[in-house]
Design brief:
The structure holds two protein chains of two kinds.
Chain A: E1 3-4, H1 8-23, H2 25-47, H3 59-90, H4 92-98, H5 103-137, H6 146-170, H7 174-190, H8 203-210, H9 213-226, H10 233-256
Chain B: E1 8-17, E2 20-29, E3 35-39, H1 46-53, E4 61-66, H2 75-79, E5 82-85, H3 97-107, E6 110-111, H4 114-123, H5 139-151, E7 157-161, H6 169-184, E8 188-192, H7 196-202, E9 205-210, E10 213-219, H8 220-227, E11 230-236, H9 244-249, E12 255-259, E13 262-267, H10 273-280, E14 287-293, H11 297-305
Parallel strand pairs in B: 3-8, 3-9, 5-7, 7-8
Antiparallel strand pairs in B: 1-2, 1-4, 9-10, 11-13, 11-14, 12-13
Classes of the chains: A mainly alpha, B alpha/beta.
């Protein structure tokens, strides 16, 4: 029997997004496991012993929340942007445009799809980190503040998923998409404090880091997982919420002016 | 939905791409349950009109109404009525045929639409291929999938943009049979095609476009009647070398050619064979054989475009 509901178009697109990344789960979910494992092995285990942080935790413990957040942000961005770009290429986007899907539903489904993939990969990365931590320390890494951890993971993942929507609808070529990835996304992530504490930086770079919204996402997650952070957690939360609003605004604006025509 | 409301009304539609005017002040209205053909050479504006109807393009000005509602201003109300078969095949990447139809149905607000999906898969010969990805389908199957997608949410108006382009003759004929079946079910159909013979066979009414302008429109038969002439071939019992008196009679203003003892006349569609013979002053006993060729939509098309 056919079922019709107000939520059907949105849920259909969201389920499509889930199926899309799960069909290539080796590439989308399990491949990041290898890169996280290598980061943990090289930086966390091998070099970690010789790194002084100025925080009362080991470098391996310090690294795990950074890597988790990096995975969430990266995968949330990749999911929504690759879905749109491949849709532009194959013509799928035309199906969305001619259907009664609202722009708000398209935006919400893509953002939620990216967030879901980000969280799945984030959980896989966390479990990998926990395994390394247990192997080195003989005990599990306890989560200090679960509420803050979940909050920052959701805000960060949703923000970068929306950013992916913005960039993919804006881009007119693969080159433009890859330029944003290489020249904006990667520097923001790597300079956001995944591998180091902002406290140890030169004042100029400390200022640069303060202007990077990702450092607030990453420090928020670090606070949630370890109870330590380079920035005040309330400040991190407000900056993160403001970033989410900003990313939503630009994604909505881009989508309302977007072309659904194929490349 | 009142049966009196037109499934599609287009009023003073303009579509410009920069300075180029692809659609220039086009107006027409479809009647419920009819097949309306939009005909024209490449670049006439057919696809631009359809793209504006399905909201892939924003009209520069003018009004489009689907059962009285604008798909641009009231998309949720108007779009559910439309089924669209585009010219180009959509690839859909990782998804198989069944999933594609489930998604399409869901976008239009219908989930668990198994009965309809199964019906379309069987009816369009795709059931055995339901678990295949698009890239594994033949050209004809891809075309049929586009049609299944367009019908999965039970639209009231179907827009077919060159649905048989590049399709073999057998599949083309079966698709036209299916189109007629849909018409019987009460679906109004707007189609663009280059196959004028088929348009003549299928379309209740046609509109002929050139360079973005609708040059003429009307019931197909009337248009052919109005825009074409009938060819009458008279094979006579005369010796063209000796019977000079009879041959002189055949020098009629509507005589356009002669081959051995067969004379060709181009006359208005109303003129019958008897009337022509009277005008020529010939008796039926002088006639050995008669062949009549009615005008075709292709003749009308070429006449309207000024190429005849």
């Amino acid at each position: 029997m056919t079922v019709s509901s107000r939520w059907t178009p949105f849920m259909t697109l969201y389920i499509r997004e889930l199926k899309r990344f799960m069909k290539v789960s080796v590439q989308t979910v399990f491949s990041p496991l290898v890169s996280s494992g290598l980061y943990l092995l090289i930086f966390g285990v091998s070099l970690g012993g010789s790194i002084e942080l100025g925080h009362p935790v080991s470098y391996l413990a310090f690294l795990i929340p950074g890597l988790v957040m990096m995975s969430v942000l990266n995968n949330a961005f990749q999911n929504s942007s690759s879905s749109i770009v491949s849709g532009k290429f194959s013509g799928d986007l035309e199906d969305w445009k001619i259907s009664p899907l609202r722009e708000s539903e398209i935006l919400a489904a893509l953002a939620l799809g990216g967030l879901t993939r980000g969280l799945v990969v984030g959980i896989v990365t966390f479990l990998t980190g926990e395994a390394f931590y247990y192997f080195i320390n003989g005990e599990w890494l306890a989560i200090a503040a679960p509420f803050w951890l979940v909050l920052f993971l959701f805000i960060g993942g949703a923000s970068f998923s929306l950013f992916g929507v913005t960039v993919a609808f804006w881009a007119r070529t693969f080159d433009q998409l890859s330029a944003v990835n290489s020249f904006i996304l990667l520097p923001l992530i790597y300079l956001g404090g995944v591998f180091f504490s902002v406290e140890g930086l030169h004042p100029f770079w400390k200022l640069v880091s303060r202007l990077n919204p990702l450092s607030y996402f990453i420090n928020g997650v670090r606070y949630g997982m370890l109870g330590i952070s380079d920035v005040d957690v309330m400040t991190a939360m407000w900056v993160s919420v403001a970033s989410l609003v900003f990313f939503y605004f630009i994604a909505h604006r881009t989508l309302s002016r977007a072309s659904y025509a194929r490349w | 939905m009142s049966p009196l409301i037109s499934p599609l009304t287009i009023q003073n539609l303009h579509k410009k791409y920069g300075e180029f005017s692809a659609v220039n002040d086009v107006s027409f209205e479809m009647k419920a349950g009819e097949i309306y053909g939009l005909l024209g050479p490449n670049g006439a504006g057919k696809t631009s009109i359809i793209s504006c109807i399905v909201t892939l393009q924003e009209p520069t000005s003018g009004e489009i109404l689907i059962f009285g509602q604008s798909p641009h201003r009231l998309p949720l109300d108007a779009k559910k009525y439309i089924g669209f078969v585009p010219q180009e095949v959509i690839n859909h990447g990782y998804f198989d045929v069944y999933e594609i139809l489930e998604f399409q149905s869901g976008y239009f607000g219908k989930s668990k639409n198994k009965e309809k999906i199964d019906y379309l898969l069987h009816r369009l010969g795709l059931w055995e291929h339901r678990n295949k990805k698009v890239k594994a389908l033949s050209g004809g199957m891809k075309r049929r999938l586009l049609i299944a997608k367009a019908l999965v949410h039970d639209p009231k108006i179907l827009l077919l943009d060159e649905p048989t382009a590049g399709v073999d003759i057998e599949l083309r004929l079966s698709l036209w049979d299916f189109v007629l079946e849909l018409k019987k079910q009460g679906i109004s159909i707007l189609l663009t095609t280059h196959y004028l013979e088929e348009a003549e066979e299928l379309c209740d009414r046609v509109g002929i476009l050139q360079k973005g302008k609708l040059l003429t429109e009307g019931p197909t038969k009337q248009l052919v009647h109005k825009m074409t002439k009938r060819k009458i071939f008279l094979k006579l019992r005369v010796d063209s070398k000796t019977d000079e008196k009879t041959i002189a009679k055949l020098q009629h203003p509507q005589m356009v050619g002669v081959h051995e003892n067969t004379w060709e006349f181009l006359v208005s569609p109303e003129k019958g064979i008897g009337e022509l013979l009277d005008e020529l002053g010939l008796s039926t006993s002088a006639v050995l054989d008669v062949k009549i060729e009615e005008g075709s939509l292709e003749d009308a098309f070429r006449h309207v475009l000024g190429t005849l």
